[in-house]
């Protein structure tokens, strides 16, 4: 299987920018999503937070606008990332970002 695509809209709660040792520009944001969806004919509240990584020069023009409080829609793929303390988490690697505000 090769399908790995996620589209998620939400509000940025944190953002930081840095260059890797190889000189690649990265923006890392925390995206908070809140919505309501129907499941088994019942309306349920949906909430999640996910780290989003934007890598490369193609995001340079939009990166300065990615600050706390900004609403965006992100499309990309998810990947497992292990933190220094051994905790696993899913991270969304952006392939497209659209500002909503």
From TrEMBL:
NCBIfam families: PriB_gamma
Complexes and interactors: Homodimer. Interacts with PriA and DnaT. Component of the replication restart primosome. Primosome assembly occurs via a 'hand-off' mechanism. PriA binds to replication forks, subsequently PriB then DnaT bind; DnaT then displaces ssDNA to generate the helicase loading substrate.
One Pfam family hit: SSB_1
Family recorded in the similarity comment: Belongs to the PriB family.
InterPro entries for this protein: NA-bd_OB-fold (IPR012340), Primosome_PriB/ssb (IPR000424), Prisomal_replication_PriB (IPR023646)
Entries under SUPFAM superfamilies matching the protein: Nucleic acid-binding proteins
Source superkingdom: Bacteria
Name of the protein: Replication restart protein PriB
Protein task: Involved in the restart of stalled replication forks, which reloads the replicative helicase on sites other than the origin of replication; the PriA-PriB pathway is the major replication restart pathway. During primosome assembly it facilitates complex formation between PriA and DnaT on DNA; stabilizes PriA on DNA. Stimulates the DNA unwinding activity of PriA helicase.
Annotated keywords: DNA replication, DNA-binding, Primosome
